[in-house]
Amino acid sequence: MLKFLLVVAFVAVVTYLAIRLMQRRLPGGGSQGVRRPLPGPKPKPRMVAPDDDEDFLRDLERKRRHPEDPDTPAT
Fold this sequence. Notes:
By secondary structure, this protein is mostly helical. It is built from 2 helices and no strands.
């Protein structure tokens, strides 16, 4: 009985592998359409020019209006 089960398992594995091979060889076959592509590298953060940075412009405006403000960091 054990030999019979081993033969059935072997035939099942061979059949499975043969079907997988045939599916991959067919155009559009296999699971290529199901797989999601791996995410690519994340783009580096873009440098922001001073005239595009709202915080920088807000700080310039505050310094322009109050040049003697003592809590302004010295830069």
